Automatic annotation (TrEMBL):
GO molecular function terms listed in the Swiss-Prot or TrEMBL record: 4 iron, 4 sulfur cluster binding; metal ion binding; tRNA (N(6)-L-threonylcarbamoyladenosine(37)-C(2))-methylthiotransferase activity
Annotated Radical SAM core domain residues: 130-355
MTTase N-terminal domain boundaries: 2-112
Protein name according to UniProt: MiaB-like tRNA modifying enzyme
CDD domains with a match to the protein in the record: Radical_SAM (cd01335)
Gene3D superfamilies assigned to the protein according to its UniProt record, in alphabetical order: Methylthiotransferase, N-terminal domain, tm_1862 like domain
Organism listed in the record: Hydrogenimonas thermophila
Residue ranges of coiled coil: none
Keywords (A to Z) from UniProt: 4Fe-4S, Iron, Iron-sulfur, Metal-binding, S-adenosyl-L-methionine, Transferase
The protein's required cofactors: [4Fe-4S] cluster
Length: 415
């Protein structure tokens, strides 16, 4: 039986798409490494020029390591670099997001092909297992209607469209029956779920919570304007993870306008303080060094970051993405300055996270995900890591930990 290796770049949505392809494989086995594979499927990311380079470099490298393997390209990079890689003979075939459910047909093809598909497709596959995972990712929507000036994703994933609720709930029922208790809702713009179906993410969450076996629900990322009064009514529900990731991207109103964002700091601060009052840890995205970010804007941004009750941050230095408005903006920020600002920002949030963990006065509800260096590692309800010493194998188990040590980087406990 032929063996397939999947290499997944990028976001949780891509991770879910890889699971969709795995569930559709037919008479193929999953390979553990590129070297033992007959076929290599590269699920690519194209969020920055650097992401494109990473995918291209991987394809070149794996082509040298396993010259007999057929290489196929899918994912967001299929739309931006697929034709170039196909014409150069680096890959046997290219297929877009809308075509991934036809993967078995593609892998059986001896003829090179380029099937980019469309940007209107909605998945119909029900995923029943997540290979090598303790938590289950659930894609609830595809695409994005926002047009942030730095982002190419709407042009490779299409406009926002919601998956069928019946399919989503059926998927969760099957995964819960197979032992999964934590579910992470993912998509290109998760909070837009339901706007095209007369529903909302809050309504979906309520229906998910009624499924037997659902213990905790996390939400990949939300926009500030998507947190409605209907959503806020769910904040104290026991099945809600006590962590929300709310994408701000910046705290300077001038920068937010340059980025063509839909949020502004005053309302963001009010929202974050309200959510934190319910005992939540809060994370955000932040782009450092976007064109136009001068010393004045950066100084203002830092002072405002200190005001926000943040505990986590996904900070990254701006990286040009050809084809976006930001890529042609003047006042580019030198890399060394962006790097220094990134370090300053992450150090602020690191201190905030440490203070938050010290302030928690409730037991930690932990799902153990992996074992490393003699300790079992999991995430608590606040999305903080804890390393647990145990005399038995506790991987995949739920633990309630009352006594633990709060260290600067992570928490430590025993069971």
């Amino acid at each position: 039986m032929k063996r397939v290796f999947f290499k997944t770049f990028g976001c949780r949505t891509n991770q879910f798409d890889t699971q969709v392809m795995m569930s559709r494989l037919g008479k193929y086995e999953i390979a553990d490494s590129e070297e033992e594979a007959d076929v290599i499927v590269v699920n690519s990311c194209t969020v920055t020029n650097g992401a494109d380079s990473g995918v291209r470099g991987y394809i070149n490298q794996v082509g040298r390591k396993n010259k007999d393997a057929k290489i196929f390209l899918t994912g967001c990079g299929a739309h931006t670099k697929g034709e170039e890689l196909f014409k150069s003979g680096k890959v046997q075939g290219v297929f877009g997001h809308s075509e991934k459910e036809k993967i078995t047909k593609f892998l059986q093809s001896d003829t090179p092909f380029y099937e980019i598909g469309d940007l209107e497709h909605i998945d119909s596959t029900v995923v029943e297992q997540f290979v090598g995972k303790s938590r289950a990712f659930i894609k609830i929507q595809e695409g994005c209607d926002f047009r942030c000036s730095y982002c190419i994703i709407p042009f490779v994933r299409g406009n926002a469209r919601s998956l069928d609720e019946t399919l989503i709930l059926e998927q969760i029922k099957r995964l819960a029956a197979n032992g999964f208790g934590e579910f992470i809702l993912t998509g290109t713009n998760v909070g837009s779920y339901g706007k095209d179906r007369g529903s909302s993410i809050a309504k979906l969450l309520k229906r998910m919570s009624l499924i037997r076996g659902v213990r905790r629900i996390r939400i990949g990322s939300l926009e500030p304007i998507q947190i409605t009064d209907e959503f806020k009514e769910l904040l104290d529900e026991p099945w809600m993870a006590k962590h929300l990731h709310i994408a701000l991207q910046h705290t300077s109103d001038k920068m937010l306008k340059l980025m063509n964002r839909r949020n502004e700091f005053a309302s963001d601060l009010k929202l974050f303080e309200e959510i934190a009052s319910h005992g939540y840890a809060i994370g955000t995205d932040f782009i450092v060094g976007h064109p136009g970010e001068g010393e004045e804007e950066w100084s203002e941004a830092c002072e405002r970051i200190k005001l926000l009750p943040l505990t986590h941050i996904h900070a990254f230095s701006y990286s040009k993405r050809d084809g976006t408005p930001s890529s042609t903006m003047k006042e580019q920020v030198p890399g060394n300055i962006a790097k220094a600002r990134h370090k300053e920002l992450t150090s602020i949030i690191k201190a905030k996270n440490y203070a938050f963990r010290q302030s928690v006065d409730k037991p930690l509800e932990v799902l153990i995900e992996s074992e490393k260096d003699g300790a079992y590692v999991g995430l608590d309800q606040y999305f903080n890591k804890i390393a647990v010493k145990s005399s038995r194998d506790i991987k995949g188990e739920w633990l309630t930990i009352e006594n633990y040590e709060v260290a600067e980087e992570i928490n430590f406990g025993s069971f």
